């Protein structure tokens, strides 16, 4: 019998076994070998998941380092030996198609030595510690009354700081002492949720700039450990035939020439992005004045988000009436548990399984103490029914979206749990798409009404485009051509025109208009952002960035791709890419870029199935995805289940083809979804001669 933990002699034995008997029993032996490899994979994944979970909930656990080291050693030895064996068999042509795929999944990736794996763990831990400990404490200046918001306290502090700065004639450091003596009451902001919350709610440019900068103060210390982390990974990647770790990251997605592929996708949504960008810039200029240029990139700190990738908080600048879903959730007194139950209910309505008992007992949904690292995570513990959520959730609509997103991962884990161990994973872009695709269903007016976030009047307030698009109708232009037309249309002086803005005819804006605008502000900026984060790292990994201008390169790319600039010149003493969780966490990001497109394709396909009760190839060209209520559609659920349960047993193209009938990732569904918005924004652009591009 072949044992699981193969020694060199076993390997030789197995090869001899194979070479000498070309018949039945050998096939059986190989099948058994693969069964054992798959079982061991599950066993190691289970151990790894337990350690990762423990790291997140209690990073200071004393025994953890030891356990983690033991685990790494055992896994490395096992994996490399198993790989040698299956690669030997593969060279002999002894593996069937399934086994070849499993061998590929088992043996791809960087090959770390034990020492490298340890070094990786330490560096990784160091980076995450820097990231998680970002904090600022501001003295609560004595004459500030209790009960003021963080924003107000910071404002007071800045006013005082400026006064001193003027008196002393020197620059006052923004950095305040975290360990300041406690004799003064101090206000502290700690962790990404609190920082981002301020970026989302404050409309004071000074406060925003302060919070934005402070968030990036400590990430400068990531520069050196990040360099080391990359060196170690490159070394290990080269050991397995990749030119650098970036090549493996791209390879993993199984898309040829991913860089060109992504650039093309970006180009195909750029007209839409530029339109949103131009309109947002125009209204920000109304609000904040000359600090926002008329035609250039937008200052990063004014975009309603710590990373400028979610502009939804700016909706109220653009439309006179909006629908504040956060407020409504508050007035309904939803708890986090209520939200999770509603998300669960949506998936169940599609005929998908309910969250397990262990999910409810083991998940961490709100912050218990200060130590947890709670960037939203869904964990597959590789144990019967043990799927967990880790997320320090608040009760905003954004939190509601995150919960659906993470639950999409858990549905995926459940769907492929009966597959062999090596197939219990999936193309990462697909994995990221499920929960977000579901979210389009949740954000339909019908479902929002169903869960009492919209009232009857709003539900029935359908688009009256006759009035709204009066001007646009004559110039119904194809999307791609449209922005060229705007470019010739922007000669007039926007400053002058801006003074005459009256929103009287934006007054008949419909519920659908509001919802789609909010959705676009939330989603579209993520597209250039996610491309940025990995294009930058790919260049870093391959060594094509000058070590002395790493930060400048970063901001050059931000400007090019996002049309955004930092609020001040950012020198090389900073390492601003490190202010992004997935950089500190060393997780690839391009999956989110691809998912931005895939999730629309998936949703469109679920929508078709829901409406037609099957999978039709053809649908009317003009239809309204925003109002496609898929809640309760068992057919949609069936398609999803079919797609998810395949795990990584096939390449993604084949899975997509066989489940939703598409074989590529494209912007078509996304552009269909946003067609009504395109019209709405076009109307604004024409009315106010808003410049487009940067
Ligand atoms: C798939 O889409 C990408 C990106 O738009 C494009 O570059 C590629 O040629 C397409 N591939 C096929 C096979 O259609
Ligand atoms: Zn995710």
Automatic annotation (TrEMBL):
Cysteine-cysteine disulfides: 374-392, 607-628
Cofactor(s) listed: Zn(2+)
Residues where Zn(2+) 1 binds: 405, 409, 432
Enzyme Commission identifier(s): 3.4.-.-
UniProt cofactor note: Binds 2 Zn(2+) ions per subunit.
PROSITE patterns assigned: PEPTIDASE_M2 (PS52011)
Glycosylation sites: 664
Keywords from the UniProt entry: Carboxypeptidase, Disulfide bond, Glycoprotein, Hydrolase, Metal-binding, Metalloprotease, Protease, Signal, Zinc
Broad enzyme group: hydrolase
SUPFAM superfamilies linked to this entry: Metalloproteases ('zincins'), catalytic domain (SSF55486)
Binding site for Zn(2+) 2: 405, 409, 432
UniProt GO BP: proteolysis
Annotated catalytic residues: 406, 582
InterPro entries: Peptidase_M2
Protein name as annotated: Angiotensin-converting enzyme
């Amino acid at each position: 019998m072949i044992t699981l933990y193969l020694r060199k002699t076993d390997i030789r034995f197995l090869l001899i076994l194979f070479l000498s008997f070309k018949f039945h029993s050998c096939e059986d032996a190989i099948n058994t070998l693969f069964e054992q490899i798959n079982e061991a994979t599950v066993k190691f994944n289970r151990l790894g998941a337990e350690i990762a979970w423990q790291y997140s909930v209690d990073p200071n656990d004393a025994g953890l380092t030891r356990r983690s080291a033991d685990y790494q050693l055992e896994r490395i030895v096992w994996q490399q030996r198993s790989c040698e064996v299956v690669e030997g068999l593969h060279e002999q042509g002894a593996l069937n198609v399934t086994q070849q795929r499993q061998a590929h999944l088992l043996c791809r990736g960087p090959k770390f030595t034990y020492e490298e794996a340890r070094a990786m763990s330490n560096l990784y831990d160091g980076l995450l510690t820097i990231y998680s400990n970002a904090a600022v404490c501001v003295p609560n200046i004595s004459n500030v009354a209790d009960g003021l918001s963080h924003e107000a306290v910071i404002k007071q502090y800045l006013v005082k700081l400026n006064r001193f700065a003027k008196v002393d004639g020197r620059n006052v450091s923004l950095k305040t002492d975290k360990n300041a003596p406690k004799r003064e009451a101090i206000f502290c902001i700690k962790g990404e949720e609190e920082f981002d919350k301020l970026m989302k709610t404050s409309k004071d440019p000074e406060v925003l700039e302060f919070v934005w900068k402070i968030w990036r103060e400590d990430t400068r210390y990531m520069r050196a450990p990040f360099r080391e982390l990359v060196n170690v990974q490159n070394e290990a990647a080269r050991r397995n035939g990749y030119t650098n770790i970036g090549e493996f990251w791209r390879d993993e997605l199984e898309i040829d020439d991913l860089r060109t592929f992504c650039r093309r996708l970006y180009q195909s949504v750029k007209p839409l992005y530029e339109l949103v960008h131009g309109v947002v810039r125009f209204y920000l200029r109304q609000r904040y004045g000359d600090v926002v240029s008329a035609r250039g990139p937008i200052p990063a700190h004014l975009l309603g988000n710590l990373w400028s990738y979610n502009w939804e908080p700016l909706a109220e600048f653009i439309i006179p009436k909006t629908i504040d879903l956060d407020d409504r959730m508050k007035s309904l007194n939803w708890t986090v548990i209520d939200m999770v139950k509603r998300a669960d209910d949506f998936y169940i309505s599609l005929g998908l399984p309910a969250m397990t008992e262990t999910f409810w007992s083991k998940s961490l949904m709100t912050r218990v103490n200060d130590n947890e690292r709670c960037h939203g995570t869904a964990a597959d513990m590789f144990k019967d029914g043990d799927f967990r959520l880790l997320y320090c959730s608040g009760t905003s609509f954004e939190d509601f979206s995150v919960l659906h997103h993470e639950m999409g991962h858990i549905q995926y884990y459940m769907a492929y749990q009966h597959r062999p161990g090596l197939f219990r994973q999936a193309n990462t872009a697909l994995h990221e798409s499920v929960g977000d695709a579901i979210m389009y269903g949740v954000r339909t007016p019908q479902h929002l009404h169903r869960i009492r976030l919209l009232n009857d009047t709003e539900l029935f307030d359908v688009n009256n485009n006759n009035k709204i698009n009066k001007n646009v109708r004559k110039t119904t232009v194809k999307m791609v051509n449209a922005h060229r037309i705007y470019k010739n249309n922007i000669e007039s002086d926007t400053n002058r025109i801006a003074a005459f803005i009256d929103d009287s005819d934006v007054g008949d804006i419909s519920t659908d208009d509001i919802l789609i605008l909010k959705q676009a502000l939330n989603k579209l900026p993520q597209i250039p952002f996610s491309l940025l984060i990995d294009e930058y790292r790919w260049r870093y990994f391959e060594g094509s960035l000058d070590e002395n201008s790493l930060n400048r390169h970063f901001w050059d790319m931000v400007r090019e791709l996002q049309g955004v600039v930092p609020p001040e010149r950012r020198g090389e003493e900073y390492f601003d890419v490190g202010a992004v969780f997935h950089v500190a966490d060393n997780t690839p990001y391009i999956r989110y870029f691809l998912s931005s497109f895939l999730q629309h394709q998936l949703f469109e396909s679920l929508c078709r199935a829901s409406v037609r009760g099957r999978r039709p190839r053809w649908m009317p060209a003009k239809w309204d995805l925003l109002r496609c209520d898929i809640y309760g559609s068992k057919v949609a659920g069936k398609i999803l289940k079919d797609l998810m349960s395949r795990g990584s047993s096939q390449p993604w193209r084949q899975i997509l083809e066989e489940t939703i009938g598409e074989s590529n990732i494209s912007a078509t569904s996304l552009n269909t979804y946003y067609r009504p918005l395109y019209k709405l924004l076009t109307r604004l652009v024409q009315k106010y001669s808003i410049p487009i591009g940067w």
